[in-house]
Design a protein that fits this description.
The strands form 3 sheets. A 4-stranded antiparallel sheet has the order 4-7-5-6. Strand 5 and strand 6 form a beta hairpin. The protein has 2 domains: 189 residues, Uridine Diphospho-n-acetylenolpyruvylglucosamine Reductase, domain 3 (2-Layer Sandwich); 106 residues, Enolase-like, domain 1 (2-Layer Sandwich), CATH 3.30.390.50. The protein has 326 residues and is of the alpha+beta class. Helix 9 runs antiparallel to helix 10. It is built from 11 helices and 11 strands.
């Protein structure tokens, strides 16, 4: 049986207090909200932690333009006015874990890799990996960096929607685009300060905008994405007036693909146009041999999930997801 390590458990009453605690405790402190990803990794000794700081105080409110970081994924999934963001939240893991997992936690979820997400004994037997205890990335041994992949479902959708994230530090609050949270590095994947607390998400509302998220995984529940595509579009009659597309599980950060989105602007969405946009979206995707199934197949599937997400967002498959325009 895998057991949790010993740690202190702190219960601050506000985000500023939590940030101060994290700054004082240093690199061996971590925040915990739902704990659906953190606790299994602590059991596998993937983190060296002596202090956990509870985020149970975080707001759980959900509206058409704001989501508290403490809102559960299950609650978010019920709010269809959030369009593709609610759709993405409803596709995370399984129902029991969505009842515990939070909006903030899914934005900050650790990167994943077949060589990293194993027990301590397994990792020790292969000599560890660069992300934890080792010096070499076993996926790309000649690379100077770690290639673990981002597997958040809600992050690419938030980026496609143009959402901003609310952060609280020891000395104040700030707001930033969701994409500014991330670095293209499997280890140092978060660009925010370690002591900053994600307190909420602002979702802009644009009249006539539509969005959708399509997730490919081995099983219909539980599994992380093999490839995911988030699409936001605004139509002007039959033509695309504006568009954003972001991908999951193909890089160490949620990958926005502006070339594909810009290609669609001003065009009618016929089959040829959608196929060409999907090809452009797939070009920067770099699946490697560090997740489920063949990376060659996953690369091909990026094009497929982008096509499906465009169709779902625009109603070409009969399942348009519209954002609230109120």
């Amino acid at each position: 049986m895998l057991r949790l390590p010993r740690f202190r458990y702190l219960r601050p009453k506000s985000a500023r207090e939590a940030a101060r605690m994290a700054a004082d405790a240093g690199s061996k402190a971590m925040f915990v909200a739902g704990g659906t990803d953190l606790f299994p990794k602590l059991k596998r000794r993937q983190f060296d932690v002596d202090t956990l700081i509870s985020l149970e105080f975080l707001g759980r409110d959900v509206s058409a333009d704001h989501v508290g970081a403490g809102a559960t994924l299950a609650d978010i999934a019920k709010h269809h006015e959030l369009g593709g963001y609610a759709q993405a939240a409803g596709l995370v893991s399984s129902p029991p874990l969505r009842n515990a997992g939070t909006a903030g936690g899914n934005l900050c979820v650790d990167t994943r890799c077949n060589y990293y997400d194993m027990t301590y004994e397994w990792r020790k037997a292969i000599g560890y990996c660069m992300k934890k205890d080792g010096e070499i990335c076993l996926v790309a041994p000649s690379s100077p960096r770690c290639w673990a992949v981002s597997s958040s479902d809600t992050a690419p959708m938030a980026i496609a929607l143009g959402a901003t994230v609310l952060l609280a530090g020891p000395d104040g609050e700030r707001e930033a685009p969701v994409e500014a949270l991330y670095r293209d590095d499997g280890i140092e994947y978060m660009a925010k300060k370690p002591e900053e607390v994600v307190t909420g998400l602002r979702l802009p509302r644009a009249a006539g905008s539509r969005s959708a998220y399509v997730k490919l995984r081995r099983r219909g529940s539980i599994d992380f994405p093999i490839a995911g595509a988030a699409v936001w579009v605004q139509m002007d009659g039959d033509s695309v007036a504006a568009c954003r597309i972001a991908l999951s599980a193909v890089a160490s950060h949620p990958l926005e693909v502006p070339a594909a989105a810009e290609f669609l602007v001003g065009k009618r969405l016929d089959a040829e146009t959608v196929t060409a946009a999907a090809e452009l979206a797939a070009k920067p995707a770099k699946p490697l041999d560090n997740a489920d199934l063949s990376h060659f197949w996953r690369k091909r599937m990026v094009r497929v999930v982008v096509e499906q997400a465009i169709a779902a967002a625009t109603g070409a498959d009969g399942s348009t997801v519209k954002l609230s325009t109120a």
